[in-house]
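Exam revision sheet. Question 4 asks you to relate a sequence to its structure. Input first:
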Amino acid sequence: MALFKKRTAGKPGEWYYCLQHKKVEEGPECPAKDRFGPYTTRGEAEHAMETARERNLQWESDPRWHDRTTPEDPTP
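Answer key, structure tokens:
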């Protein structure tokens, strides 16, 4: 019997996208720091990077989040 058991977050049936291995995983295979998820379907996990890019673009173009001025844009 093992004295220490490796504990993982998540469970089978949850899908993740591993940033280190660049692949979809079911359940917790890699550490949480290296993955996006959980997703409810494999398809959602397969498109994790695309979803992240879209959300980043939305965030970057949202005027409510631009509270600092830059030399190119003097308005807050």
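Marking note for examiners. The chain has a mean pLDDT of 82.
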